[in-house]
Amino acid sequence: MNEYPDNELINMISENSEDARDYVYEKYHYIIDIICNKYKKAAYVLDIDFKELEQEAMVGFSDALVNYADDRDTTLPTFITICVERRVTKFIRKSSTDKDKARREAYSLEAEYDENVSLLNFISSPLSDPSITVEAEENIRNLKSKIKDLLSPLEYEVYKLMLNSFNYHEIASILNKNPKQIDNTMQRIRTKIKDLLKK
After folding, report:
1. Is residue 66 in some structural domain?
2. Which of 23, 102, 179, 195 lies in the 20 to 30 Å Cα band around 150?
3. Do both 199 and 133 map to the same domain?
């Protein structure tokens, strides 16, 4: 199986090849380990069974294999990483929310908490104005597009992982690169984006 590139393996998986699925799982299982270890402390604090965390990571891994397509602007390991990370963080947030639900339900949005200001007014944000939100979203889309055009393919892979809070050691492991190379790449990315924002 190691003679097949990732896109061929994904095609084989979409045709229900268990061998291809097993091979890709073995090849990229280290990503699950990296992400689960990253959230081990949060799981402990929230009293989440580590096995549950690993199961959620596996679901994210499976989702990545189902949803990955050749025309994506990212490599398979980066895509798997992002899918697993999102699944795990969503699970942790939900666990945190479930545990806090009873406590939060004790607070009324209409009750006055600070100098005759209701909690609803206290937590309201100017971004709740739809016109501001639409303009902000358009600016973010434009900035993302400029950043993508500015970065090389490797830099863009690293950038996407940086956005998901991975450090250079973790990114080097995910992309099978030398940590020093990734550290240098991250410095270049920061410089390029800083220069872009100055324009």
Report:
1. yes
2. 179
3. yes
Cα 167-171-174 angle, rounded to 5 deg: 145
- Residue 94, classified by CB atoms within 10 Å of its CB into exposed (0-12), middle (13-18) or buried (19+), is exposed
| Below-70 pLDDT ranges, the chain | 70-72, 97-136, 199
pLDDT of residue 131: 53
Q: State the pTM of this model.
A: 0.64
Per-residue pLDDT of 12-26, as tens digits, reads 988 888 999 999 999
Residue 140: helix, strand or coil by DSSP? helix
Same domain assignment for residues 2 and 86: yes
Residues contacting 82, CB < 8 A, separation 6+: 64, 74, 160, 161, 164
Nearest alpha carbon to residue 164 among 97, 98, 74, 100 = 74
- Judge if 38 and 81 occupy the same domain: yes
Number of domains in the chain: 2
**76: Cβ contacts below 8 Å, ≥ 6 apart:** 6, 7, 10, 24, 28, 64, 68
Task: Give the position of tokens 């799982």.
Answer: 25
Judgement on whether residues 68 and 20 belong to the same structural domain of the protein: yes
pLDDT for res 155 = 92
Tokens 């061998």 sit at which residue?
A: 19
Q: Which residues pair with 117 in a beta bridge?
A: 114
